[in-house]
Design a protein that fits this description.
With 470 residues, the chain is mainly β. It is built from 1 helix and 39 strands. The strands form 9 sheets. Strands 1, 3, 4, 34, 37 and 39 form a 6-stranded antiparallel beta sheet that branches. A 5-stranded antiparallel beta sheet has the order 2-33-38-35-36, with no helix packed on it.
């Protein structure tokens, strides 16, 4: 019997045929891929970090920024240090949010006027004396847009057209503001050709129409809104977010549930809601993943959504927040700042993190920026309940199908579904990729732990013999 590693559906019982666990892996078109370990990328900042972001300057060189509760930092590619580029000593309980407009890297935390850093800057500073204080920030067409301002939690404001330094309302510059009358406070903003305003109980599309209105606001959802600001992420024109009942996506026209009857109950059962604000969200374009991080009783966990197959997995991690960065180019001589020798490098020289201008899944852990570029995490994939006929059966042989690797395998056997799932000892596959068992029961589950520097866990072959009743 060949069992392929298909969809993981933790919200469904094990007898439906879906995987019962897909830990420290990510979904692929066939099977699951290995999820890399976290590795330190920067040296320690002078305080704990709460966010990371990056852009490219006018010359095309990557810049990596990070934020803490009182400071903003710029990554020094020569030393790996996080240099303090704060315009003042900031104080805020909110994390920093960043957005790029031309050569401007802008930052906001809800407590200070919109900050900026450009090619001539040595530190962040107010982008303009008339600039707003806001919690949320994005770019829509040729405008910088902010939301949830110090004036009103349901207000959206935008800069002058193609001018992020102009914020005084004017028909000439097209800078203006608008109150969104229903839906509650603004909890998310995403941009592009159009903007999306995610409120507590509504989603509004923001379309440029020129003077005198400048932007037209159209309500596209009056029932589904955004539950947590830090759950909002945009990739490839699609906005993803957490609502009251689970995870959704929105393309600017329609709102679609992506977690219902799949992972929503798993999320709400495991998240620590009292620290839901510690959520983070990002994308991994290299693997076509949307990733949400959140606190559980077992530590920080990542919920992983594969946008192509629309399948899920989860990852246990040591990071505090996830994000993505554009890597600066590192020469062979520059590797000295990262390791005492080439042999001691934890990441292969073929890794994307050494190539300039490549997006890399990243995050912050304590005082450091980290990248997910290490060897495969210790993964665990568990099958659904396997039933052969109506009577007892015995698993006698297992052969894991792991591309470029091997595995250990453990088996659980139960006579009825009311009994607890209890796995026996994990056994490593032989050189011939064979593992012998004598596991007797009516319902079997098989747990596979891939090993080595593997890339895809495809499934497992089992020999199962019917067993008579006594």
């Amino acid at each position: 019997m060949k069992i392929e590693f298909t969809e993981w559906l933790p919200d469904q019982p094990g007898v439906v045929g879906a995987l019962t666990s897909a830990e420290n892996v990510y979904p692929k078109a066939v099977g699951y891929g290995s999820f890399p370990e976290e590795e330190d990328y920067s040296n320690d900042a002078s305080e704990a970090l709460n966010s990371v972001a990056s852009d490219k300057d006018a010359s095309g060189d990557a810049r990596i920024f990070a934020g803490g509760s009182t400071k903003l930092f710029l990554f020094n590619n020569s030393t790996r240090n996080l240099d303090d580029v704060s315009g003042t000593t900031y104080t805020s309980s909110d994390r920093w949010r960043f957005a790029k407009f031309g050569d401007y890297m802008m930052a906001t935390n809800g407590e200070y006027r919109l900050q900026y850093y450009n090619a001539t800057s040595t530190e962040f500073q107010d982008i303009d004396a008339s600039a707003p204080t806001a919690k949320l920030l994005t770019v829509v067409r040729d405008f910088v847009v902010v939301g949830n301002t110090s004036t009103s939690a349901s207000e959206v404001r935008w800069s002058g057209i193609n001018n992020p330094t102009t914020w005084t309302p004017s028909g000439l510059t097209q800078s203006d503001f608008q109150e969104v009358p229903d839906g509650g406070e603004i909890r998310g903003l995403t941009g592009g050709e159009f903007g999306l305003i995610l409120l507590e109980k509504a989603i509004v599309r923001m379309s440029y129409v020129g003077t005198p209105l400048i932007f037209q606001l159209d309500n596209i959802s009056r029932n589904v809104g955004c539950y947590e600001s830090n759950s909002v992420v945009q990739w490839n024109g699609i906005t993803y977010f957490l609502s009251d009942d689970g995870f959704y996506s929105c393309n600017g026209q329609q709102v679609e549930s992506i977690g219902a009857e799949k992972v929503n109950r798993f999320f709400w059962d495991s998240v620590r809601e009292e620290v839901l604000s510690e959520m983070s969200a990002t994308f991994d374009p290299f693997r076509s993943l949307i990733i949400w991080g959140f606190q559980t009783d077992q530590g920080y966990r990542l919920l992983v959504y594969h946008t192509i197959t629309r399948r899920w997995s989860f990852v246990q991690t040591t990071v505090n927040r996830v994000g993505e960065i554009v890597t600066p180019e590192v020469t062979l001589e520059g590797l000295d700042a990262y390791s005492a020798s080439i042999d001691a490098l934890r990441s292969s020289l073929d890794s994307r993190q050494w190539l300039g201008g490549k997006l890399v899944l990243s995050g912050v852990r304590g005082f450091k920026v980290i990248n997910f570029t290490g060897n495969p995490k210790q993964a665990s994939i568990a099958t659904a309940d396997i039933l052969v006929g109506d009577n007892l059966s015995m698993i006698t042989l297992a052969k894991p199908i792991i591309n470029n690797g091997s595995a250990t395998v453990a088996v659980s056997a139960r006579n009825n579904l009311a009994a607890a799932v209890s796995y026996g000892d994990a056994v490593a596959a032989s050189a011939e990729n064979r593992i012998g068992f004598r596991s007797l029961g009516r319902y079997h589950r098989v747990r596979v732990n891939p090993s080595g520097v593997w890339d895809t866990a495809i499934g497992i072959e089992l020999e199962i013999q019917p067993a008579g009743m006594r």
